[in-house]
Amino acid sequence: MRQPQAVSARGTREKGEANGVTRQRNEREILAAAERVFARHGYRGASLQAIAEEAGLPKSNVLYYMGSKGDLYVRLLERMMMRWNALLDDISVDDDPAEVLEAFIHSKMQLSRRHPEGSRLFAAEILGGAPFLQEYLSGELRRWVQARARIFEQWAERGLMDPVDPVWLIFLIWSATQHYADFEAQVLGITGKGELGDADVEQITAFLTRVILKGCGLTPPSAAPG
Amino acid sequence: MRQPQAVSARGTREKGEANGVTRQRNEREILAAAERVFARHGYRGASLQAIAEEAGLPKSNVLYYMGSKGDLYVRLLERMMMRWNALLDDISVDDDPAEVLEAFIHSKMQLSRRHPEGSRLFAAEILGGAPFLQEYLSGELRRWVQARARIFEQWAERGLMDPVDPVWLIFLIWSATQHYADFEAQVLGITGKGELGDADVEQITAFLTRVILKGCGLTPPSAAPG
DNA sequence: AATTATCCTGACCAAACGGTCAAGAACCGG
DNA sequence: CCGGTTCTTGACCGTTTGGTCAGGATAATT
Questions:
Q1: Model-level pTM?
Q2: In this structure, is the CB of residue B46 within 7 Å of any atom belonging to strand D?
Q3: pLDDT, tens digit, for every residue of B101-141?
Q4: What dihedral angle (degrees, nearest 10) is formed by the CA atoms of B173, B178, B180, B185?
Q5: Do A182 and B126 touch (CB under 8 A)?
Q6: In terms of CA atoms, which chain A residue is nearest residue B121?
Q7: What are the residue ranges in chain B where pLDDT is below 70?
Q8: Distance from residue B44's CA to nucleotide C25's C1', rounded to whole Å
Q9: 3-state SS of chain A: helix, strand, coil percent to 5?
Q10: Going by CATH, does the domain composed of B21-75 fall within 2.30.38.10?
């Protein structure tokens, strides 16, 4: 719907450094505001007016930078997918299962903590049937899962861990970690806390690591490997 | 906003049996349709027009029965909370931990399976910061959790299970089971399945039971208790 | 058959929706 | 100081929003 704007209309600036600084600042502000609003109300429920107010700009300005509501939404999803893809990108059969799973749980937990709005935005998209992400789910992400699942299976064959279904295991880790971003309101309401601090998150991470690793027949790498 | 309609305007019918049969049918239809639409788009994103079309009725008729969008939404939430409350309502310290946890996982999984739209409706509400449910979360549900947490702790004290934090454990079970309703689109996209059949659900339930129970130092009740 | 309560719905309303546009303001290297 | 680009924004458009209402259709009670 909107061409990515030619880097420079005439052959004036190849660096494009000092130029576009306003654009960068405003786009950053708009993206942050939009992430909050989309996360809270979903795609349909979010209004450009609300996003604009959250960003402290007139609605027209939001459209000037983002083209349309759909473009803005897609841009946020893509940004979140990039953060996602950086996770656990290089593991091999020769790695230690316990270490890998611990790293997986830890980094996924950190992702939920560092980008709670992005996590909720993603969750809302899936909840609504993933109209924008279906292709990604059944393509790129599916291959990502299958590759890791194969490694888990090989670990099981070598007797390094219990022969559990690797896909369900990945889903278990996803859901358990995602929960603390997506259901934050529930967690806070039930625990009575005002927010989850670093100490809480570390405690939860330790709990999840302990239970899930033990549940797969693994010993945490911090403990003596025997 | 809308009074619960006097059972009978005059003192005509105390049974109110044959009367109101149309109302029951239409309300059931509307509630089912609304649950789907609210689950998909959240409170703000759902439109009465869409709900009416889904129910095969004119918009005015939906408002005639439900009063307002807010009333309809609250009614759906309350219905879902009732299903919720029926879960694991009577456990005691003298029960077998493994049996209780297995029953918990199983019944929660069944709830997600039998009422996926209700599950997603609930998830969307929490995702949006639980504007309608905050009171319930920090009141009734909080007490529900605390009561069960206390029992888990006593089991741990008696050495019947590992001394894990009981609240995080409850959250783990919630998230892992809820996942298959809320993130159904993701699960289907990644597994490549068209839907999750009974066999799949049983398999997942068995996986979760196995990993979580073992992770807490419990042996599944189906196996020999030693 | 008359009456009354319930059910049904098209027409209508003000507000909010996503999006367009033109005209001006601010900034830029030359 | 100039000419061109980028930025800013209020006015505006057609559509959709949640909700009201009057009035006709239907069914139940007497």
A1: 0.90
A2: yes
A3: 999 999 999 999 999 999 999 999 999 999 999 999 999 99
A4: -140
A5: yes
A6: A127
A7: 1-20, 222-226
A8: 37
A9: 70, 0, 30
A10: no
